Amino acid sequence: MSRLLNSQLAVVLALSMATPAWAGACSVGSGPVRAALLELYTSEGCSSCPPADRWLGRLAAQGFSANRVVPLALHVDYWDYIGWQDRFAKPAFTARQREQAAIGFVYTPQVMLNGQDFRGWGSAARFEETVAAINRTAPRADIRLSLNQAPGKLEADIVVQLAKQEDAAVYLALYENDLSTQVKAGENSGTTLHHDYVVREWLGPYAANGKHIRQTIALKPGWKAKDSGIVAFVQNRGSGEILQALASKLCE
Fold it and tell me: Which residues are 228's β-sheet partners?
């Protein structure tokens, strides 16, 4: 990316875990193509959500690699009251959805594509067209992510450079794939649901103003390193536009 300003954010993220499965080191950069950040707001208590969950899990196999689409599934908690408590749901994800849809309507399943409500996910042609248009738009941020894994912890070093001065925020999300739940109550009672890109931890917003931010997150037992990854993205605070997004599997 040309003529990048000196504005940068270095984030050191220390993650601790009870098992020694997390090990290795790797680095990745966002590159010249703007990736589309896809946020799926879903719930295990919502009967219309499983088709969207399955659609999300098939994106990579359909050619939407991480340099084109960065998917995340955020499970909301406002369906829990009808009889089934979604173990992946967090109030922070509900708050994120309401913040993103402040000028619109909150519903499930809801897809936010690069900060905008997108209801055409059921049409393969419309989704491809929209993603391609985002990919053709020059990114306004460059993200560099370095991971250093050792038994019991993961350190992530993130450097963000902005193409121009603007009010931008940086977010981090730790996600996990290949999850399933046998639902025993609520609208999906009696079914086994499968999930991918489930957000386990959400960090931010951090101002992209050169501050150094250090966070320590305890990882719960049972989380699988081989099925986990990290997403970093930069968002304009005013418009909600995603300036760039980057996803990385954990190092092998």
Answer: 176
The residues, any chain, with a CB within 8 Å of residue 197's CB and separated by 6 or more, are: 40, 56, 57, 71, 72, 73, 175, 177
Place of tokens 């369906």: 79
Indicate the helix (H) or strand (E) that contains 143: strand 141-150
pTM: 0.89
- Tallying the residues shown for the chain, one arrives at 252
Q: Are strands 69-75 and 36-42 parallel, antiparallel or unpaired?
A: parallel
Q: Which of 98, 46, 92, 38 is nearest to 65 (CA)?
A: 38
Q: Which of 67-76, 144-153, 154-163, 243-252 has the lowest mean pLDDT?
A: 144-153
Q: Which residues of 144-153 are buried (b: 16+ CB within 10 A; e: fewer)?
A: bbbbbbeebb
* Rounded Cα distance, 169 and 187, in Å: 37
Q: What is the pLDDT of residue 40?
A: 98
**For residue 14, which of 207, 220, 157 has the smallest C-alpha distance?**
157
Nearest to 232 by CA among 220, 223, 213, 219: 213
Distance CA 110, CA 24 (A): 36
Residue among 51, 39, 40, 43 at smallest CA distance from 78:
43
CA separation for the pair 121, 52 (Å, rounded)? 8
